[in-house]
Amino acid sequence: MILKDNQLNLFSNLTLTPAPRAEALVMSADALLKWKAQILGYQQRVRETKPVQQATLFDIAPKHCDPDAIDPFTLPLQSMAFYRMPTDAGSAAIYFVIDNAMPLLLYVGETCRSGKRWKGEHGCKQYLDSYHSLHHHYGLQREVSIAFWWDAPTDRRSRQELELSLILKWRSPFNKENWDLWGQPFG
User: Fold this and answer.
1) Considering only CA atoms, which of 106, 96, 178 is closest in space to residue 142?
2) Which of 68, 72, 96, 156 lies 20 to 30 Å from 46, alpha-carbon distance?
3) Are 83 and 124 within 8 A, CB to CB?
């Protein structure tokens, strides 16, 4: 007696149809402008608010990495294609992605490989693509650049602590730490 290997088909009466693709939600021009205005208002207040200097009994030098002493809007700007240019790829830095049309600080990051950090995959690049596309769709101006603060600590943990304090201070909308506050319309 020869046994055939017959496998039962549990889905013989099932007709498969592909699920319809959901259309991507597009933020309206008014919603985009309101979103940007809220962030701009907050960041302008941060720039105008000077931290209170506490007097000390001893003449102690302030930390050079004081987040209150770093104003990303005063740093020299570079093209977002900076990573394609020859550079020293080993420099530690805090970097800021800024839309100079308003001006609006979109993202704060840290690196010890400034020339290599953006060559590969980077989440902020995807947000920027969507940001650019939406502005183009509505004919809105944008001037996105990057600025580097080169006095960053070489120690990774110290650099990340400084980065986080700047993210929380400026509430940069492309940083995940602020998605609950501003939403995630570009990710």
Assistant:
1) 106
2) 156
3) no
What is the overall mean pLDDT for the chain?
80
Domain ranges of the chain: 69-182
Return the pLDDT at 119: 59
Confidence of residue 26 (pLDDT cuts 50, 70, 90): confident
| Model pTM score | 0.77
pLDDT digit string, tens, across residues 73-115: 999 998 777 665 555 556 788 999 999 999 999 999 998 875 5
107 contacts: CB under 8 Å, gap ≥ 6: 96, 97, 124, 127, 172, 174, 175
Residue 160 pLDDT more than 60? yes
Contact 86, 157 (CB under 8 A): no
| Strand arrangement, sheet containing 144-149 | 77-78, 144-149, 93-99, 104-111
Ramachandran sector of residue 180 (left: φ over 0; alpha: ψ -120 to 50; beta: rest): alpha
Please list, in sequence order, all residues whose beta carbon lies within 8 angstroms of the beta carbon of residue 80, skipping any fewer than 6 positions away. Answer: 97, 128, 144, 145, 146
Q: Report phi then psi at 70, rounded to 5.
A: -105, 115
Closest-CA residue to 92 (of 146, 161, 156, 164): 156
Over the stretch 130-142, which tens digit does the pLDDT of each residue have?
999 999 999 999 9
Using N-to-C axis directions, what is the helix angle for 29-48 and 123-138, rounded to 10°? 120
CA torsion sign, 117 to 119 to 125 to 128?
positive
